[in-house]
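Sequence in, structure out. Go.
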Amino acid sequence: MSLKKAILNSLFKNNQTKSLIKEFYYPELGPGMMWEKCQEIITSKGGTVYLNTKVNQIYHQNNHIQKISFQQENQTFDLQADYFISSMPVTALVLRLEPSAPSPVLQAARSLKYRDFLIVALIIDAVDLFPDNWIYIHSPEFQVGRIQNFKNWSPAMVPDSGKTCLGMEYFCSQGDKVWSMSDRELIDIASQEIVALGLLLNREKIEDATVIRQLKAYPVYDEEYRQHLQVLQYYLKTFDNLQTVGRNGMHHYNNQDHSMLTGLLAARNIMGEKNDLWEVNTERSYYEEFVIKPEKTQIAITG
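Output:
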């Protein structure tokens, strides 16, 4: 959409662009509540959710996934299922197949790139600092790329109403200068930058801080990614009981809505529908309600 059209839509209340969202529901304690609820529902229906678990191998034969081998601490287990849904990075999925995928597929998997991410959460002795939910920082003078104001998403995100929690987000790559810094160094840089940006008068107001790191947070769209992803896509479609979902599972930079939609459509496929998950993106309309009759089917979901 052109800038002119976006402005006209805004002025005349004729906006049909999904990215210009005016209001939405936000979980009181953040999006993690959705996955806690999901775990609760699965457990209540007799399913099992394994946390802090690593997938070691994915065994297949005749285009059919037979089982996965996974590890919890020092113990290794095998899990068999009728269907498998994966939200783990598609590159990791392919590299864990046993027998190994064909050489061109392995090469394509090794060629896809990711951008990693870390966030420095600053607890600040201030009731309110700015009205925005987040602010993007584009100046090359600063290393921070985006600042989250968690209390503006939901007051419950900051239990003490007299405090503010800001998330200083740094986009980096594993092994680079920013990623390799110690937590203490990162907290120091974030504290300096929030003051230099004029969003906080002095760093003495910062009472506490912590650092959280996330590998493969963003799929990289370089000039070759489409051809590499197409190789993986065609190969993975040959498996009759495997579907990949989500941003990393499909190497698609979709928003959270559409990432979750791929999971919903994957469930529909198991019930007999023929949805092409690779067609789901930010331009596609989607359903909000559907009914599925329960079946006694074993499903393994990895992420």
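Check: The chain has two domains: 48-113+221-302, 114-219. Confidence is low (pLDDT under 50) at residues 15-19, 284-293.
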